[in-house]
Amino acid sequence: MRATTNRNLDQYQFTVRPLSKEEGGGYLVEYVDIPGCMSDGETIEEAIANGREALRDCIDLFAESGRKIPKPSIEAAQWRQRLPKTLYAKLTKQAEKEGVSINSLVTAIIAEAIGAKQALS
């Protein structure tokens, strides 16, 4: 039984980067606060879902082995955003499909957009 909650997982920041063809293609997700905690996927969404599962497994392994679980290095900032019900419903459906929280999904979408914009600069 897993004691790690989605809220606890949301505290950990992650990076997403495309993998080159030589690396196998797709995308890589890395959790910088948990050494070696990473996963990949063919799409960004798949990589995030797989990365979240890897994070859960890493944290559970730390707990089971009696090792201290690394704390998130950056406190997550928070803001409230009102959304139209239709957009919220779409985000909810997509998050459920990907097996992640809405917070993780929206964070990934924002990170991807910022990364794409920076790549064009």
Order of neighbouring strands in the sheet with most strands: 1-2-3
Q: How many DSSP helices?
A: 4
User: Tell me, what's the shape?
Assistant: globular
CATH topology: Double Stranded RNA Binding Domain
DSSP, total strands: 3
* Distance linking N and C termini: 46 Å
Percent of residues in helical segments? Answer: 40-55%
- Please tell me the overall pLDDT: 85
The low-confidence parts are: none
Estimated radius of gyration: 15 Å
Number of domains: 1
Structural class call reads mainly alpha
The CATH architecture classification is: 2-Layer Sandwich
Instruction: Give the CATH level 1 class.
Output: Alpha Beta
Give the SSE string: HEEEHHH
Key traits:
121 residues, mainly alpha, Double Stranded RNA Binding Domain, three-stranded antiparallel beta sheet, 10% strand
Summary?
This protein is mainly α. Helix content is about 50%, strand content about 10%. The chain has one domain: Double Stranded RNA Binding Domain.
Structure write-up:
This protein has helices spanning 6-10, 44-64, 85-98, 102-120; strands at 15-18, 27-30, 38-41. The chain is mainly α and 121 residues long. It has one domain (6-120): Double Stranded RNA Binding Domain, CATH 3.30.160.250. The chain has a three-stranded antiparallel β-sheet, covered by helices on one side. The model has no long low-confidence stretch (mean pLDDT 85).
